[in-house]
Each structure stands twice: as structure tokens, then as C-alpha cells.
Design a protein that fits this description.
48% of the residues lie in helices and 13% in strands. The chain is of the alpha/beta class. It has a single domain, classed as Metal-dependent hydrolases (TIM Barrel, Alpha-Beta Barrel), CATH 3.20.20. Helix 3 packs parallel to helix 4, helix 5 runs parallel beside helix 6 and helix 12 packs antiparallel against helix 13. The chain is globular and about 50 Å long. The chain starts with 7 loop residues before the first strand and ends with a helix. Bound molecules: zinc ion. Zinc ion binds next to strand 1.
Length: 330
């Protein structure tokens, strides 16, 4: 079986950040909003550097507003996932953008997203679960409100809690209340750390928020004692190599630390983060990794297994996905 045809599991995908450019262009046209400046001549997002990326991201996502917009966005995103062979995906969604942290409004957005997920599962064979995330740079107070929205809607679809946004703002312990609230509601815990800040921030995050997974976490490589600690604890890294390379964290695929982390027995998984902004897909990530590290299908089967073990969904869903993987990997 070719890599492209192999079923894949993705744990780290921002729903708005996965919006296909054509979808955003169409939505902007319907709303008569001119955001043509964010596209390049080929119709993709035009990104120059990290700061420009944030600007383009903000402009693109500003046109996604109503629950109906989110329903259509979810379908458009899952179509792309299915095209890369993704059979199970966890996506970050935020009450900050979906209803301004109002619980009643949040339920409406969630219903629309879940409705699209059910449709995509029936039509395209891709299963979606949601990780609710406050935006770090909006501050701890708003994170508490987000955690309450997450706790109130925890269940089969909302299965996790994380934190995104600017990693350089605030300290992990500022958000401990929100994470404790989510954990008590039975949600799986992940946190972005070790992308824009180094090993000390990863340690502080592990201590204060007690996540079973880290978003990125790759800068652990700067401290091998921490790498060994991650391996020992079994902390799972949601690694997004194409995103890191596009944003200039590493110069190229061969210099990305995922190879070393894998060799030192850290539990790594592979995701796309905000794929169209970084001109990537799950197929492209797997292809580049196979080239850079000579990884064969056995390694990718291991990545899939690690990702499924670390997934926040219920047992029935895991069993269903495991059967699909078994059929593919033999
Ligand atoms: Zn991310």
C-alpha cells in the first residue's frame, strides 16, 4: 500500500486554520468583503513570515462567523482531510470565536460543527472529535469561561481541552484553574508548548497543566534530559513538521528534530496544524518525512498506533478506528 493510500490519524488541527483558500474566497464574496490581498496569484494564502502569517490568518478567518459558516467550514476541512486519507481527526475549536464564550451561543455553534462532522463521517469515512481551546493571549479570565463552556458540553464529540495562541504570553500556572475544570469534566488534556519557547516552558507546562499530550513540544530537543523524561512519562507530542519549517523554526526537513525524538523513543505523532497556510497536507507531511528520515511503512504504522492510543475519543470510537487501521496495515 502506498503512503498516500494509507489511512492516517491527525491530532493537531486548528479548524479555522485549516480553511481551504477557495472556501474563504467564496465566503468573502457572498458577504461582499474584499480580502483579495491575502491571496497569491495561484489562489493560495500569501505568507511572507510569522507576523505576516498572523495578519493573513486573522483576515481569512474574520469572514467565518455564524454557526452555518462553521458547518460549511467543517465540511470543507474534512473533505481535505479525507483526500489525504485521514480517517480520524481531532480539531481545536474555541468558544472565543464561536459565540464569544456565551454558553447558549456556543451550543449552537457546536451543534452545527457536530452536524457537519456526522455528515462527513457518513459520506467520506472521516471521524472528527473536538478539543476546546482558550486563546492564551486573551488571558486567564477568558480561559476560565472557555473551560466552563468545555465542561458543560463534554461528551462524545467534545473530548479534549487545550490551549492555543501566543505561547510567549503569560505562564502555564495562570491557566491551571481552567485546566483543572476541564480535567474534572473528564476531558483529555493537551497544551501548545515548546514551539516558540524552550525546555523550561515545557517543564512548567507539564507541572502546572498536567497534559498527556503537548502541541509541538519539539524544542524539548534542546535539553536531552527533558527528552528522556518525556519518553519515560510517555507524553505524546503532536508534531507538525511542515508548520515548524514554514515558520522558520527549522531550516529543512532533515534538520527537524522529529527524527531524533522518535529515535530516543519519545511518542511522536504527525499533524498539519494550519495546513493551507503552510502549503501542506497529511500526504505531504508523510512524504517529506519518508524522504528525510528513510521512514518505511512500519514507522508510519507506529505513528498511527501512537496517535490512536493518545486520542481523546471514547473506547467504541477507538475500536472502530483500530479496525480500519488493522485492515490497512495487515
Ligand atoms: Zn497548533
Amino acid at each position: 500500500m502506498t503512503l498516500a493510500a494509507t489511512p492516517k490519524i491527525e491530532l493537531h488541527l486548528h479548524l479555522e486554520g485549516a480553511a481551504p483558500p477557495a472556501f474563504i474566497r467564496g465566503l468573502a464574496a457572498e458577504k461582499r468583503e474584499d480580502i483579495s490581498g491575502i491571496f497569491d496569484e495561484r489562489g493560495g494564502y500569501a505568507i511572507r513570515d510569522f507576523w505576516h502569517f498572523l495578519k493573513v490568518y486573522e483576515a481569512a478567518t474574520s469572514v467565518i462567523r455564524s454557526p452555518e459558516d462553521y458547518r460549511r467550514l467543517t465540511l470543507a476541512v474534512l473533505e481535505e482531510s479525507a483526500a489525504s486519507g485521514v480517517i480520524y481527526c481531532e480539531t481545536f475549536i474555541s468558544p472565543d470565536f464561536c459565540g464569544g464564550r456565551d454558553l447558549v451561543a456556543w451550543r449552537d455553534y457546536l451543534a452545527a460543527i457536530e452536524d457537519a462532522a456526522a455528515e462527513a463521517e457518513a459520506k467520506m469515512g472521516v471521524t472528527l472529535r473536538a478539543i476546546v481551546t482558550p486563546i492564551r493571549h486573551f488571558g486567564p479570565e477568558k480561559a476560565r469561561e472557555v473551560a466552563i463552556c468545555a465542561a458543560e458540553t463534554a461528551g462524545r464529540f467534545v473530548t479534549g481541552f487545550g490551549i492555543g495562541g501566543d505561547e510567549r504570553v503569560g505562564e502555564p500556572e495562570d491557566y491551571a484553574w481552567a485546566f483543572d475544570c476541564a480535567r474534572e469534566a473528564g476531558l483529555g488534556i493537551t497544551a501548545h508548548a515548546g514551539e516558540w519557547r524552550g525546555p523550561d516552558h515545557i517543564r512548567a507546562t507539564l507541572r502546572a497543566l498536567r497534559p498527556s499530550r503537548l502541541g509541538h513540544g519539539v524544542r524539548a530537543i534542546e535539553d536531552l534530559a527533558l527528552v528522556d523524561e518525556l519518553a519515560e512519562r510517555g507524553t505524546v507530542l503532536e508534531v507538525c513538521p511542515g508548520s515548524n519549517i514554514a515558520l522558520g523554526l527549522y531550516s529543512d526537513w532533515r534538520h527537524h528534530p522529529i527524527g531524533k525524538l522518535f529515535d530516543r523513543e519519545v511518542k511522536v505523532t504527525v499533524s498539519t496544524d494550519d495546513p493551507p497556510f503552510f502549503r501542506t497536507t497529511m500526504n505531504r507531511e508523510w512524504d517529506r518525512l519518508a524522504d528525510a528520515f528513510d521512514w518505511d511503512t512500519g514507522v508510519f504504522a507506529t505513528l498511527n498506533k501512537t496517535a490512536l492510543d493518545a486520542a481523546f475519543c471514547d473506547r467504541d470510537t477507538k475500536d472502530m478506528i483500530a479496525k480500519k487501521l488493522e485492515a490497512a496495515h495487515g
